[in-house]
Structure formats: C-alpha cells, structure tokens
Amino acid sequence: GINAEYMGPVPPVAPQLAVLVEEHARIRRALESLDPCTWSAFASEFIDGVHHKKEDILFEALLAHGFPSGQGPVPVLQREHTHLRHLSDGFASISCPAEREVMVQRYRALLVQHLEKEEGVVLPLASITLPAATLDQISASFQRIDPQ
C-alpha cells in the first residue's frame, strides 16, 4: 500500500469531492462487515451503480483539463474500475462458496489499493488542479446520480 508517513501529509480534498471520501469510508465499513453474498450485491448496486459513476465523471473532467490519458493515475484507475466491475459481475456466477470467497478476497484487496490511490493521489490533485466552476459542475453531476 501507500506509505503515508513517507509521502508526507496528503493535501485536503475540495468540498465538492468530499462525498467520494465519505463513500470510500462507507465502502471500507462494508468491507469489514459484509459476508461474500451480501458483498456482491453491495458491489454491484452501490460501488458500480453509484460510486464509480461519480468517479467516472471526475476522471473525464481530469482528462479534459490536461491529465494524461495514455498513462498516469487516471487511466490506471479507469482500468481498475473495469477490472473491479468484471470481478463483481462474476460473483453471481460462482456457485461454490469457497470459490466465491476467494474471488471476493481478490476484489477486496484490489479495492483497498484502489481507494488508497484515489485518496492519496487523485482526489488531492483534482482538488488543486480543477477550477472551482468545474468542481461545482462535478458536484452537481454527483447529485443527479445520487440525490441525497
């Protein structure tokens, strides 16, 4: 994982993006408490159905504001979203509990590393790179995906 002590303090996340950090906390709580069967529904409905849709909006804004599209943090995270989605889609097709447990553990391990990259690199960079008007547009798009 990322060694926060070595890297130093992480810059704050813009208020418009704070909902993503809050959702990361919700995901971490679910990682600790849900069994593999319940986890697969949570991954499909919340992580893929709500959270990653919001992050995809952020990633597109970052690419539109000059972040590299061929390499770097955004395409890495986009590929990880695709990989996580494929893993979660596969949960339902596994009838053997032991195999499902192995797949869920792989998903969880990738997800933890993924969240660290987003919180330690991409969200702070987005917060200091994107103009306030763009952050406001992103926040409004988040509200359309998940009105709270």
Q: What sort of overall outline do the alpha carbons produce when their principal axes are compared?
A: elongated
Largest sheet: none
How many β-strand stretches? 0
- Identify low-pLDDT runs: 1-6
Report mean pLDDT, rounded to a whole number: 87
Short description, anyone?
This protein has 148 residues and is an all-alpha fold. 78% of the residues lie in helices and 0% in strands.
Structure description:
The protein has 148 residues and is mainly α. Helix content is 78%, strand content 0%. It has six helices and no strands. α3 (36-64) packs parallel to α5, α3 (36-64) packs antiparallel against α6 (132-145) and α4 (73-91) runs antiparallel to α5. The termini are far apart. Residues 1-6 have low confidence and may be disordered.
SSE topology:
Layout: H1 4-7, H2 18-33, H3 36-64, H4 73-91, H5 97-129, H6 132-145
Helix pairs in contact: 2-3, 2-5, 3-4, 3-5, 3-6, 4-5
Defining traits:
single chain, 148 residues, mainly alpha
